[in-house]
Each structure stands twice: as structure tokens, then as C-alpha cells.
User: Which sequence fits this backbone?
């Protein structure tokens, strides 16, 4: 970690800056990016004036890093593979090109957080508060979001293959230009949203609420729409894939184009449609 990565200050210089309870002192920076054990100086804190860069926090419990408890912080290119962030209050934190693969974030407050670039593959966001959070160009394949509060959370350009959103709470989740191949979106509240440019091939949307949403440019090939709510969902610009009678019933109430209706009729009845 370079000298410009963050500012370390004595307690007398940190008046008015919140410090985590139980602080045992700060940790000196090492040239290899890892943090040293706590020092005996009980008056050390981190000033979040500049990003923390290139930290190696693999497998670390951030409960043991109280000097990182000052919010909000910006982490850049930090390695948090398998790190334990469970139950921490991290509202407004930013993670740029960080590795959060297999990180444990159960019950963590990440409202209004930003994750940009990097990865969170197989990460556990169970029961997180992600209200107002934003994910940009993040690979969160096979991550689990069950029980998380997803009000107004946004995913843009993300890789979410096999990711499970089943059991999430809140309204206003937005997904755009993302790969959700084989993702689990069962029961998700996705109504009245611009769900554009999504790859939903073989995704499960059983019981999902898609009422009034626009799926222009999205691919629904072999997506499971059983019991999904599609009233007034605009599928005119979507790739529906093959449509059999069961799938047609599942699409009840959705808006499709004349061309799509013609293709479905040809597939189901093997008729020739002419003017």
C-alpha cells in the first residue's frame, strides 16, 4: 500500500472522526500490501480522504480490522477473497476492481454502496441491506442474495450466471445489459422496470412479478416462466425462443408483436400465414 493510499493519524488529529468501538490501535502498512497486526498505539485511525489501494485481505475477518470501520471508504484493487464481512455496517462503501469471490457478507449493511468492476463470484450476500446499491461490470456468478433487501438496487453490464435472487425483498430492483444465464429469479419483484438487454436463457422466473416491464433486447430462450406475472409486460423486442402451449399460457397478459404472434401460430399450428 503506497503512502497516498490512505492517511494514518494520531488521535489528537482525529477529533470528530468516528472510530470503531473496541479499537486496539492501527496497523502499519507493509510493502507487500498486507496489514500488520495491531500496534500498541491505541490512538490511531484511518482518515477516508483517499482510496485504500492494493490491500491483501484474503480470508481476513474485517471485525479484526477496526481501523477500517470508518465509513465510507473506497477500496481499489483490493483482494478480499473469502473475507468475512458479516454483519458490518458499510453504507456508501465503494469497491473498484476488487476481488470479493467467496466473501461472506451475510447481514452486512451495504446500502448505497458501489461495486464497479472486479468480481464477487460465489459471494454470500444473504440478508444484506443493499438498498440503493449499484453493481457495474461485476462478475457475481453463483452469488447468493437470498433474504437481501434489494430496494432500488441496480445491476448494469454484470455477469450473473447461476446467481440466486430467490427470496430477496424490496421493490425497484433493476437489471440491464447483464448475463443471467441459468440464474434463479423465482418470486422476484421486477415490475415496471426497463429490463433491457438481459440474457435470461434457462433462467428460472417462477412466480416473478414482471408486470409492466420492458424486456426489449432480452433473450428468454428456455426461461421458466411458470406462474410469472406478465400482465402488460412488453416482450415485443425480446427473443422468446420456441413457444409451446404451456409457454404460451405462461405468457398470458404480455404484449407481443404481430411478427411474434405469427411465428407462434406457425410453430403451434403449422399453418402458412399470408396477407
Assistant:
Amino acid at each position: 500500500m503506497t503512502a497516498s493510499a490512505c492517511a494514518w493519524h494520531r488521535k489528537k488529529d482525529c477529533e470528530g472522526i468516528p472510530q470503531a468501538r473496541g479499537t486496539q490501535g492501527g496497523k502499519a502498512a507493509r510493502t507487500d500490501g498486507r496489514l500488520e497486526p495491531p500496534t500498541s498505539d491505541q490512538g490511531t485511525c484511518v482518515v477516508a480522504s483517499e482510496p485504500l489501494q492494493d490491500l491483501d485481505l484474503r480470508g481476513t475477518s474485517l471485525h479484526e480490522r477496526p481501523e477500517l470501520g470508518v465509513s465510507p471508504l473506497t477500496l481499489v484493487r483490493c483482494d478480499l477473497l473469502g473475507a468475512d464481512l458479516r454483519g458490518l455496517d458499510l453504507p456508501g462503501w465503494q469497491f473498484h476492481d476488487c476481488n470479493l469471490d467467496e466473501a461472506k457478507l451475510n447481514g452486512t449493511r451495504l446500502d448505497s454502496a458501489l461495486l464497479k468492476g472486479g468480481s464477487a463470484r460465489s459471494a454470500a450476500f444473504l440478508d444484506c441491506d443493499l438498498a440503493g446499491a449499484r453493481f457495474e461490470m461485476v462478475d457475481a456468478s453463483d452469488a447468493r442474495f437470498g433474504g437481501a433487501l434489494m430496494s432500488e438496487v441496480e445491476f448494469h453490464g454484470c455477469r450473473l450466471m447461476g446467481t440466486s435472487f430467490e427470496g430477496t425483498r424490496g421493490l425497484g430492483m433493476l437489471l440491464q445489459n447483464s448475463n443471467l444465464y441459468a440464474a434463479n429469479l423465482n418470486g422476484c419483484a421486477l415490475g415496471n422496470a426497463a429490463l433491457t438487454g438481459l440474457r435470461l436463457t434457462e433462467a428460472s422466473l417462477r412466480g416473478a412479478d414482471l408486470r409492466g416491464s420492458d424486456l426489449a433486447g432480452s433473450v428468454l430462450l428456455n426461461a421458466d416462466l411458470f406462474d410469472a406475472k406478465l400482465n402488460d409486460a412488453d416482450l415485443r423486442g425480446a427473443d422468446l425462443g420456441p413457444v409451446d402451449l404451456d409457454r404460451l399460457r405462461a405468457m398470458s397478459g404480455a404484449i407481443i408483436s404481430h411478427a411474434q404472434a405469427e411465428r407462434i401460430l406457425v410453430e403451434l399450428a403449422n399453418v402458412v400465414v399470408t396477407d
Q: What stands out?
A: Helices lie at 245-250, 258-269. The two ends are 70 Å apart (CA to CA). The chain has two helices and eleven strands. Residues 1-44 have pLDDT under 50 and may be disordered.
